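Before a colleague's protein record goes any further, I have to sign it off. I want your independent view on whether this chain really folds as the tokens say. The record follows directly below this note.
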Amino acid sequence: MLNFIWKFLERIGSQLVSFIVSIILARLLLPKDYGVIAVVTIFVTIADVFVNVGLGSALIQKKEVDELDYSSAFMCNLGLGTLLYILIFFCSPLIAKWFEMPELVSITRVLGTQVIFASVLSIQNSYISKNRLFKKNFLATLFATIFSAILGIAMAYLKFGVWALVAQQLSLSLLSIVCLTISLKWFPKFNVSFKRIKTLLPFGFKILATGLIDVGVRETRQIIVGKKYTASDLAYYNKGANFPQLIVANLNMPLRAVLFPSMADLQDKKEQLLNTTRTAIRFLAFLYFPMMAGLAIIAKPFISLLLTDAWLPCVLYLQVYCFEYATWSLQGPVECMLKGLGAGSLILVSEIIRKSGALLIVFVAMFFGMEAMAIAVLATAFLNDFVYRCAGKIAISYSFKEQVKDICGPILLTIAMTCAVYPLKFILFNNWALLFSQVILAIVVYIGLAYITKNRELCVGLSIVKKLFKKSNKNKFETTK
């Protein structure tokens, strides 16, 4: 639990800073600037998959790991990252020509160095997860996030435009590497054992293939929007996804970082693995459902007040992505369970089914405008949810009846909350009053009903808080004494 708290604090701290910075930058920069960065990010993200998943995941999943394993994976990853950057460097003119944006050449070549940084961070993060060093990661990440945020805002204020976003992203990665190296006091030795790499490849390759399919399909959607529509449309589309993603990432990433190695330790204990998976799903459903429903309800006044009316076209995309990210309450724990089991083949097959269907949906939707692309997000979310439910049933006999039972409570509570909050939009017409009233009422209704119905997750959460509070008071008393 302590590891989760540190990882959660890391995400909360860094994402809170990122959230504030995104609001400031959205007011200083144009939607087109975000659209240009989004185009470059498509190709950087695809390249990142080669160095961010695969060997890193294999290190965590492997039962016994020593210094030679880390060093071999590090050198292999660094070499791969360098080769990928060279490829991006020489392909940048083609990218600029395809999207008819000449400025992309220099931006792609500079931002492309992110791939090299990612190759180093990937192994550092694997070392942190395997050794449960989340406290050190919290301090290093928070410092890097704050410094890069200040740099980005300063450059945006000085009219550097899109380069402010470039500087923010690169400085965050570079500073994270430096801070983690100092904090961990660990750096790999410059030796490589191809025999060790070979032991990591069977599982790592399947996870890499899964990641490539996932990112490839997701970025194909971005390419279609960026090519067929305008840079501003792409910016609205991405900004709509950013806010629900920001909220979900604060819980999903730290939970995955803790769950994956924990489930890898339970890979020979199927009953405990099933119970851990169910507990994680219930906990995330209890949190994700009301947060995503609430954000979808307040989307219009929220965007208008925080980003100005210039960003209102992103409201529709924000609402549909809220639905998609709500389904991550199932997907995250099931994916960690499958990785912990080493079920690379099942992960790969599931990914192929999901992404084949997603591609078909996107290619049909692209002919009917941006609204249809939004509807495609909903259809894809339904498909993803169904495939993950089937994977859970196959891997650990997690029946559909049990799956429905585990999320039924949060669904009913969320529906009740929505019925209480939504009508306020017909009564209050001031955006500040509406936003404040809906948020407060949503929290009161949801937590109140959960308390009255004695929701298990709320009771467990309150119990943990009480224990931490008593422990804190006890430590203070002993220190005073």
Notes: The first helix runs from residue 2 to 28.
